[in-house]
């Protein structure tokens, strides 16, 4: 792991990916590596071709992008003030493609993402599953297990 100089953390749903981001921060500090956090946003509504209501869908999509950028900035703002520089990446497009592009563009050595089964909502919002990323990834991959929350 000593050759790990660039780490990319995938943050799909910011509220649930905090553990993956914390793992990335910890490893970046330990190995004095550059840390990137990507938030890929997929437009599940494909605004092209919808005759009715596209304005409201476009407004919702624009709000989603704005909220994602804000939440990602807030999540890592404190780390930037303690000396660890984190590069934020928000990409629109098919998530697998955007993550692969970011890996190649930034010469990433390690990709960190949350290990989970994608439900119907995540599949709608993000498209393909983690399996596709695992198969196509040109660098090492770390899956971070998120503990299940207790239900009543």
The tally of beta strands, per DSSP, is 5
CATH topology of the domain at 1-46 and 96-146: Rossmann fold
* Count of alpha/pi helices: 5
Radius of gyration: 16 Å
Terminal Cα span: 41 Å
Instruction: For the largest sheet, list the strands in their spatial order.
Output: 3-2-1-4-5
Order of helices and strands: EHEHEHEHHE
Uncertain segments: 47-52
* Biggest beta sheet attributes: 5 strands, parallel
Strand content: 15-25%
What would you give as the CATH superfamily of the domain at 1-46 and 96-146?
Answer: HUPs
3D shape: globular
- Percent of residues in helical segments? 40-55%
Instruction: Provide the residue-averaged pLDDT.
Output: 76
Helix vs. strand class: alpha/beta
CATH class of the domain at 1-46 and 96-146: Alpha Beta
CATH architecture of the domain at 1-46 and 96-146: 3-Layer(aba) Sandwich
Written account of the structure:
This protein has 152 residues and is an alpha/beta fold. The chain has a domain at 1-46 and 96-146: Rossmann fold, CATH 3.40.50.620. Helix content is 44%, strand content 21%. It has 5 helices and 5 strands. The chain has helices spanning 18-31, 54-81, 95-105, 120-126, 130-136; strands at residues 6-10, 34-41, 86-92, 110-115, 140-145. The protein has a 5-stranded parallel beta sheet, with helices on both faces. α2 links the parallel β2 (34-41) and β3. The longest helix has 28 residues, at 54-81. The relative contact order is 0.22.
């Amino acid at each position: 792991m000593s050759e790990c100089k660039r780490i990319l953390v995938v943050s799909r749903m910011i509220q649930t990916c905090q553990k993956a981001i914390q793992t990335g921060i910890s490893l970046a500090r330990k190995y004095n590596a550059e840390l990137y956090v990507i938030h890929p946003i997929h437009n599940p509504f494909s605004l092209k071709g919808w005759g009715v209501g596209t304005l409201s869908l476009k407004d919702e999509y624009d709000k989603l992008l704005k909220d994602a950028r804000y939440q990602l900035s807030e999540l890592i703002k404190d780390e930037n003030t303690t000396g660890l520089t984190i590069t934020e990446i928000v990409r629109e497009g098919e998530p697998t493609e955007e993550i692969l592009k970011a890996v190649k563009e930034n010469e990433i050595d390690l990709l960190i993402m949350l290990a989970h089964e994608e439900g119907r909502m995540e599949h709608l919002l993000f498209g393909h599953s983690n399996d596709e990323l695992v198969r196509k990834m040109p660098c090492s991959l770390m899956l971070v297990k998120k503990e299940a929350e207790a239900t009543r």
